[in-house]
């Protein structure tokens, strides 16, 4: 445990110095929230809606940090370590791949936690955004969305041979999920065929769960998103450790 915490402290310090995740996982979601807040304020999501536009969009905005960390930050930092032979040095130490991946996972979980707390405070103070539904339901759906997305990043980082390869794979995952999961383009306005395709994205399932939990809307098919995200988490985590490459 001491070895894990020592490595976590070192890696987190290095990550903060880089500033990329501070910008994309904390500042960028906050900027999006501020823009939406100044445009829509406390306006209802639609005429006579019992909740505001910001309350409807809060879950989707919080996913921006998850997307940035899981699909861009996490795989690329592992690939950079591999390309610079840093992982090769780790190989001759008692550090197991599971420990190294676990440390990186915890770092990006911390970023996501800081981001959502910041968003919640600002949204509540300036636009009186309040949770309409279940706190634990929203927290559980947010956590499952985060873990399933980060597990994909672990897999990409564990397999990518170099930074260029990791960047290409990460971009192919990041932009389609960010655009079509409901973070930017509302899921409800998509054509039926596209809805069926993007329903397999963990972010799509997570955003729908978070939105319904936040607004107090009953989830008619609760086990489908939970099953999809759980399977993705388990499979990607196992494969990332099994096929992890030190160099």
Would you mind describing this structure in some detail?
With 247 residues, the chain is mainly α. It has one domain. It is built from 10 helices and no strands. Helix 3 runs antiparallel to helix 7, helix 6 packs antiparallel against helix 9 and helix 9 packs across helix 10. The longest helix has 31 residues. The protein starts with a helix and ends in a 5-residue tail after the last helix.
Tally of helical runs: 10
Classify the secondary structure makeup into a structural class. Answer: mainly alpha
Order of helices and strands: HHHHHHHHHH
Largest sheet: none
Nearest-integer average pLDDT: 85
Give the N-terminus to C-terminus distance in angstroms.
Answer: 26 Å
Shape: globular
Count of separate structural domains: 1
Rounded radius of gyration (Å): 18 Å
Residue stretches low in confidence (pLDDT < 50, at least 5 long) are: none
How many strands? 0
Report strand %. Answer: under 5%
- Helical content, roughly? over 70%
Q: How do you describe this structure in short?
A:
The protein has 247 residues and is mainly α. Helix content is 77%, strand content 0%. Helix 2 (20-40) packs antiparallel against helix 3, helix 5 packs across helix 6 (135-159) and helix 6 packs parallel to helix 10.
Topology of helices and strands:
Elements: H1 2-18, H2 20-40, H3 53-83, H4 86-91, H5 97-127, H6 135-159, H7 163-180, H8 192-198, H9 202-215, H10 223-242
Primary descriptors:
77% helix, single chain, 247 residues, 10 helices, 0% strand, mainly alpha
């Amino acid at each position: 445990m001491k070895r894990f915490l020592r490595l976590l402290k070192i890696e987190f310090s290095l990550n903060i110095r880089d500033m990329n995740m501070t910008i994309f996982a904390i500042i960028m979601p906050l900027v999006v929230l501020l823009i939406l807040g100044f445009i829509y304020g406390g306006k209802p999501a639609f005429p006579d809606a019992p909740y505001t536009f910001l309350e409807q969009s809060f879950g989707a905005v919080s996913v921006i940090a998850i997307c940035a960390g899981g699909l861009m930050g996490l795989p690329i930092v592992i690939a950079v370590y591999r390309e610079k032979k840093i992982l090769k040095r780790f190989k001759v130490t008692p550090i197991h791949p599971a420990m190294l991946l676990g440390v990186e996972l915890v770092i990006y979980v911390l970023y996501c936690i800081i981001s959502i707390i910041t968003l919640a405070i600002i949204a509540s103070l300036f636009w009186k955004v309040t949770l309409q539904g279940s706190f634990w339901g929203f927290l559980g759906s947010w956590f499952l969305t985060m873990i399933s997305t980060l597990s994909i990043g672990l897999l990409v980082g564990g397999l990518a041979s170099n930074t260029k390869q990791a960047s290409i794979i990460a971009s192919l995952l990041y932009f389609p999920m960010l655009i079509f999961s409901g973070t930017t383009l509302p899921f409800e306005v998509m054509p039926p065929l596209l809805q069926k395709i993007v329903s397999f994205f963990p972010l799509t399932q997570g955003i729908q769960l978070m939105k319904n939990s936040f607004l107090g809307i009953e989830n008619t098919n609760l086990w489908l998103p939970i099953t999809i995200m759980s399977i993705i988490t388990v499979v990607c985590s196992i494969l990332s450790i099994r096929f992890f490459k030190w160099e």
